[in-house]
Structures are given as structure tokens and as C-alpha cells.
């Protein structure tokens, strides 16, 4: 699992704003796909993510956006142009930048949040009311080399189920 930010030119950053050397979207904000990668699911959703440490901690507050799934990955991109107020990001993390730089990234540079995972990141899935909950493994925030568990909540449930099923 990878979680972070993507700027208006498609460059991806982790939640600490370190460059991932990954282009996630094109100049129009559409997901870039690799050779032979075919989009199987693309739907408007609301996603939130909790970090599952001894007790769940909100990691990504509920945010509207688009969920796209291929056989290789599922990608959630926050909707462009969402209203933003301080702290400007829907991630519940302390960002190592001046607040005006964070505001500029989201309001001027078209920055938005993303979460991406592959089949090997998925520990389990289950229905939860109107949502699908997906338990994932990914890098622990601020702890390079450590693995953490996360719970992503995808609404509507049908979109989450179709996206995970697309992974095969």
C-alpha cells in the first residue's frame, strides 16, 4: 500500500512529502496506466483510512473522490477542487512544511490525496453497513522499514467489492 499526495502534474509524494519517483496521473488529472493495464472499475466513492495500532487512529479522514481498479492495483484519488481549510490535507498527519506551502500545494498546484494498493497488500475484506472495509499492510508512517496495518473504508460497498474483486 502506498498513501500520499499527487500534484497537478502527476508527481506522487508519500505522506511525509518525500518524492516517490512515481507519476500517478497525467496533466489532466487522470490515472496513468501501465502497458497492458486495463481499467476494470471506475466509480465515485468516499474513502477513509484508519491506522490499526493498538487501537484505531484516523489516518485519512473521509474524503470524496474516484476509485479506479485494474488487475494490478486499486487507486483512490481525492476529488480535485475540494474545499480546503487548515490543515488543508485530509490525512491526519503532521506535515513537515510551513502551512502556507501546504495551502499552496492543495489550492494552487492542484494537490490531492491518494491511496494505492495491490492484491498482496490486502489482508482481508468485509462488508460494514454501507461500506466495504479492507484491511491492508503498508509502510508505517514515519518509521522507514516498518510495516503497519490499515483499515480502508470504501463507500458505497458495491464499489469497494468490485474494486477488490478486480484484483483477481
SSE layout and pairings?
Blueprint: E1 2-6, E2 11-14, E3 19-23, E4 41-52, E5 56-69, E6 74-78, H1 99-107, E7 112-117, E8 122-128, E9 131-139, E10 147-155, H2 157-166
Antiparallel strand pairs: 1-2, 1-7, 2-3, 4-5, 4-10, 5-6, 6-7, 8-9, 9-10
Q: How many separate helices? A: 2
The count of strands amounts to 10
Tell me the CATH topology.
Answer: PH-domain like
Q: What is the rounded Rg?
A: 15 Å
**How many separate domains?**
1
State the secondary-structure class: mainly beta
Q: Order of helices and strands, N to C?
A: EEEEEEHEEEEH
So, CATH architecture?
A: Roll
Mean pLDDT: 94
DSSP helix fraction: 10-25%
Note the gap between the termini. Answer: 17 Å
Instruction: Classify the beta-strand content into a percent band.
Output: over 45%
Q: Tell me, briefly, the overall form.
A: globular
Profile the largest sheet: 10 strands, antiparallel
CATH class: Mainly Beta
Strand order of the largest sheet: 3-2-1-7-6-5-4-10-9-8
Q: Note poorly predicted spans.
A: none
Amino acid at each position: 500500500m502506498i498513501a500520499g499526495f499527487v500534484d497537478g502534474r502527476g508527481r506522487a509524494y508519500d505522506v511525509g512529502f518525500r518524492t516517490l519517483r512515481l507519476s500517478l496521473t497525467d496533466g489532466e488529472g487522470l490515472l496513468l496506466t501501465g502497458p497492458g493495464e486495463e481499467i476494470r472499475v471506475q466509480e465515485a466513492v468516499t474513502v477513509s483510512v484508519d491506522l490499526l495500532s493498538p487501537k484505531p487512529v484516523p489516518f485519512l479522514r473521509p474524503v470524496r473522490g474516484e476509485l479506479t481498479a485494474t488487475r494490478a492495483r486499486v487507486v483512490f484519488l481525492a476529488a480535485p477542487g475540494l474545499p480546503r481549510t487548515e490543515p488543508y490535507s485530509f490525512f491526519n498527519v503532521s506535515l513537515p512544511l510551513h502551512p502556507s506551502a501546504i495551502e499552496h500545494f492543495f489550492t494552487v498546484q492542484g494537490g490531492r490525496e491518494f491511496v494505492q494498493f495491490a492484491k498482496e497488500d490486502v489482508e482481508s475484506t468485509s462488508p460494514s453497513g454501507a461500506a466495504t472495509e479492507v484491511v491492508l499492510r503498508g509502510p508505517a508512517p514515519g518509521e522507514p522499514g516498518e510495516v503497519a496495518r490499515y483499515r480502508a473504508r470504501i463507500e458505497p460497498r458495491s464499489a469497494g467489492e468490485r474494486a477488490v474483486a478486480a484484483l483477481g
